[in-house]
Amino acid sequence: MEWQALAVQLFPQGHDIVERDHFLSGSGTVGERTVTVIGTTGHTPIGVEIAMAQAAAILQTMRDHPGRPLVILIDTQGQRLRHRDEMLGINHYMAHLGKCIDVARRRGHPVIGLVYDQALSGGFITSGLMADACYALPDAEIRVMGLPAMARITKVPEERLVELAKSNPVFAPGAINYLNMGGVEAIWEGDLAACLMQALQQDDKADRRSARGLARGGRKLALPVAQAVMAAGDVQAA
């Protein structure tokens, strides 16, 4: 879905979102609330410029509009893989963006992520996965790594990975698999404005992704392992 059509559906009461070099910024009206909107389009990779632009928009919202919700619209092919960005320290820029989102949440800004097209690797980790809750449209493409690339890295034949992906969502791309793993809260269909309003009304700041992944059968060991580690730490502390 094009971001312009998405914005109309999310904010039928109006918005002033603009695009500059694949970076989206502005605000929209949801019921009686105004939200800050940031994001990307055109499958753009997240380089130092966009990472800083998103961080700056979040900092400005914290300064000028305390408590205002943040909505992150996600369409990215991931972290930009260029020598220039690596030499400038792209990892620090991405970390800065993630920290800004975390500070905003701690200061009372609800943070909602929405994958409306494509979400890959580092560009998704420091946006949708940093939100209070991340949602996706049905046709959204979410993955850490494509199966051909995964085969090259792991030396596991691609045919074997394709078979594993049929029963294990960890290996498979797609919004439904991330829903099963708990990384995506829900898939939005129908009235997107109503979906966004409902998401903003939720006030649960706890990270329940591991519990959701266990309940949905997509990540069966993440929560038990975390609980075992915590229990072992409590024993050592005692």
Automatic annotation (TrEMBL):
One record GO biological process: carbohydrate metabolic process
Entry-linked Gene3D superfamilies: 2-enoyl-CoA Hydratase, Chain A, domain 1 (3.90.226.10)
InterPro entries recorded: ClpP/crotonase-like_dom_sf (IPR029045), Malonate_gamma (IPR009648)
Entry protein name: Malonate decarboxylase subunit gamma
Gene it is expressed from: mdcC
